[in-house]
Write a structure and sequence with these properties.
The complex is a heterodimer of chains A (253) and B (93).
Chain A (H helix, E strand, L loop, with lengths): L3 H14 L11 H4 L6 E6 L5 E8 L2 E7 L4 H17 L5 E5 L8 H14 L2 H10 L10 H11 L3 H10 L5 H5 L5 H7 L17 E4 H11 L5 H10 L3 H5 L11
Helix pairs in contact in A: 1-4, 3-4, 10-11
Chain B lengths: L1 H4 L3 H9 L6 H11 L4 H4 L9 E2 L8 H31 L1
Helix pairs in contact in B: 3-5
Classes of the chains: A alpha+beta (253), B mainly alpha (93).
């Protein structure tokens, strides 16, 4: 299995070379991922056994995210799947389990560590802790943890897991910091978006290459209107097929 | 598997032993699950890359197979779209 240092380097490589981002900033992963050519992102409400899935189909890449997970966890899953697609050889289709921890395969563990470092590189987390003078981890309050996860937009579980792995806090301390996260975060003035799943109308959704190419086929007259609609509906884009009216009114502000 | 395909378990066993033939609709559903095309069943030369399930596969339930099949369907469509676009380029080019 790759060590953490190498996975951190992989994460920074992707930040710099694919996303054109520095090592310290929080990452708007869903905005940046649109820039990756040949990638389609699919949101689908899966059971809580699955976190996501990725598929390579010749040049095309597909990432599917369990939209019932919290927004923070969806960001983490996206980063996890990027590891499979960009840093592993011979990937065809991988279906990923939701849990975190020691019972996973090496490839899954690597993808989890990579995801954590992509969203919050080693030096970025360290810098944040030093700049905010948080001091030694064992003295941190619940609020300190929330500040960290809100800054990097990491799920609460992923944050605690990372802080334990990097040696800031121990497992006993982490176990004391698990309950009533939303309540505490909103009272600190944060939006609860990080901790909530996708809204109902976005639980089935897709963006990226697939949609673009279907439009291309239609514009070239290569497919019938029926096929065009079928392809869009298969990718859960009922909005394009049925509703190109009122919903698409621009604000231009 | 039987639950996902919405058939009786004995139907699958009979298909496996060759006692029964399988309907195209069921075969299509199975194709979506395994991420292959119907052509795979018709043509021995078509290769199949099995999917990698990153955990104990027996903990998957019918609804998980449903989710996997729906995502695989999108990937199969993507392959179709790429092929159509390539053919178009070949003809025009």
């Amino acid at each position: 299995m790759k060590d953490r240092l190498e996975l951190n380097s992989n994460a920074i490589y992707l930040r710099r070379n694919i996303f054109n981002e520095d090592v310290f900033s929080p990452l708007d992963i869903f905005a940046l991922i649109n820039d990756i050519e040949n990638l389609t992102l699919v949101f689908y409400p899966m059971s809580d056994r699955l976190s996501g899935m990725c598929i390579k189909e010749s040049q095309s890449k597909i990432i599917a995210i369990n939209s019932k997970q919290s927004y923070g966890r969806q960001r983490f899953t996206t980063a996890h799947e990027l590891y499979h697609l960009f840093f592993e050889d011979n990937v065809k289709r991988i279906i990923c389990e939701k849990g975190m921890g020691i019972f996973k395969s090496d490839s899954e563990k690597e993808a989890d560590i990579f995801a954590s470092y992509l969203l919050a590189p080693y030096d970025a987390l360290r810098g944040y802790i030093e700049n905010n003078r948080l001091g030694g981890g064992q003295n941190w309050t619940f609020e300190d943890i929330i500040k960290i996860e809100q800054f990097f937009q990491l799920s609460h579980q992923a944050t605690l897991y990372r802080l334990v792995c990097d040696g800031y806090i121990d497992n006993d301390k982490a176990n004391l910091l698990k309950d009533n996260v939303i309540q505490r975060a909103v009272r600190m003035g944060y939006d609860d978006k990080l901790y909530r799943p996708s809204s109902e109308e976005k639980q089935y959704f897709s963006t990226g290459e697939y949609i673009k190419r279907v439009e291309e086929l239609k514009n070239k007259g290569s497919i019938t209107n029926g096929k065009y609609e079928e392809l869009l509906l298969d990718a859960f884009r009922t909005d394009i097929v049925y509703n190109p009216g009122e919903d698409w009114k621009d604000l231009y502000d | 598997m039987a639950e996902f395909l919405n058939v009786d378990q004995s139907y699958i066993s009979k298909f496996e032993t060759g006692e029964r033939r399988i309907g195209v609709d069921i075969l299509e559903k199975a194709c979506n699950l395994f991420g292959c095309t119907l052509k795979y069943f018709e043509d021995e030369k078509v290769k199949y890359a099995p999917m990698s399930i990153a955990f104990r596969a027996n903990s998957l339930q019918a609804e998980d197979l449903e989710a996997i099949a729906e995502i695989n369907k999108i990937a199969l469509n993507m392959a179709f779209i790429n092929l159509m676009l390539k053919e178009k380029v070949d003809i025009e080019g």
